[in-house]
Amino acid sequence: MKKLIYFAFSLLMLVASTNFASATEKTDKALSAAQQAKLEQLTNRVEQIRSMDKSHMSRAEKKELRAELRQMKKEANAIGNGGIYLSVTALLVIIIVLLIL
Fold this sequence. Notes:
The chain is mainly alpha-helical. The protein has helices at 2-24, 33-51, 59-81, 88-100. The protein is elongated and about 65 Å long. The model has no long low-confidence stretch (mean pLDDT 78).
């Protein structure tokens, strides 16, 4: 039982350190022309929204703008980072399932 706990702890530390190291590295990969155009379009729309006079908008309109900005941020992150995200919790669940099987 102790060996299993030590093994699981070692594996957890290895996975956690690997994730931290890969998260700190920046990958500079070239974007395609379509991705560049989409990113430019998103940037222009954000600048439009920033320059708007929001004082005369209703609450619902402001809420729609916030939702649109959140969606655009997700799209921009997906374009720039590849869009693959895996949380530490998901990794732990995968490791536990592998150990059980």
